Amino acid sequence: MGNEEKILILRNLTMTYGNHTVLNGINLEVGHGEIIGYIGPNGAGKSTTVKIMLGLLQDYKGQVVLFGEDISSGNPAYKRRIGYVPEQAEVYDNLTAMEYLTFTGELYGLDRSFAEQKAKKLMEEFELGDVLHSRLSSFSKGMKQKVLIISSLLHNPDLLFYDEPLSGLDANSMMIIREMLAQLAAQGKTIFYSSHIMDIVEKISNRIVLLFNGSIVADGSFEELQAMSEKGSLSDIFNQLTGFTDHESRAAKFISIVEDGDMNE
Ligand SMILES: Nc1ncnc2c1ncn2[C@@H]1O[C@H](COP(=O)(O)OP(=O)(O)OP(=O)(O)O)[C@@H](O)[C@H]1O
């Protein structure tokens, strides 16, 4: 692999679906140990950016360099250094947790018995040791989410792409994952964390990147973002930078339509 000073570089990344330009010249450089909170309104293009970096979408313009190598070179080796938790997970419900984890472990190039041992230990750490051999169809949302998080880490990747990773997790489990991500970053792993839960992004990220109308409109630490807007929570900053100030009138209008022609009146 080439120069790895920067784990991830996007140069003028542009993506168009039909005549809809979703990403309009994204430039980003991310180094070792950074936790990037990648935020933006619904439909801003966050998942599109991640899918491009995972090699799932090819017809983008611009350059994507991961671990010092342009991903368009056709060498898939970089994928083994990536862990991914998708927003909408297609877990194979008919498989047991162990079958699913050894299957994904082998996809990442792990030896089967090594993957099994690691999966068992990690499941036990999540208090899921008793259901290791149960089908995923019997798992709750949070239990499935834990299996996905384990599957993203089995091969000890250097770069993690997490899309709403904490969805469905209880408060205790969230604290464990938050702490785990902080410790992984301290070891030099890079985490690209996309979520709509602003108070968690605020706490977890050491750098926040806000995508709006196809462009990066803010890029810095939480304190730096506070300095460029009126002080407040990340949620307040998000509203300011995306020009959103009318939530009360929008909610009132929504309710007036709901109540419109109410049969009980
Ligand atoms: N396969 C596709 N074909 C056409 N348009 C698409 C396709 N995938 C995504 N889009 C469009 O691209 C835009 C960005 O979608 P994307 O899923 O990247 O947004 P997002 O920021 O991840 O949104 P959310 O916060 O709602 O998850 C949206 O307008 C979406 O409709």
TrEMBL record:
PROSITE patterns: ABC_TRANSPORTER_1, ABC_TRANSPORTER_2
Matches recorded under InterPro entries: AAA+_ATPase, ABC_transporter-like_ATP-bd, ABC_transporter-like_CS, P-loop_NTPase
Organism in which the protein naturally occurs: Sporosarcina contaminans
Pfam families: ABC_tran
Tree of life domain: Bacteria
Record's keyword annotation contains rRNA-binding: no
Protein name per Swiss-Prot or TrEMBL: ABC transporter ATP-binding protein
Xref: SUPFAM superfamilies: P-loop containing nucleoside triphosphate hydrolases
Keywords: ATP-binding, Nucleotide-binding
GO molecular function: ATP binding
Every ABC transporter domain range: 8-238
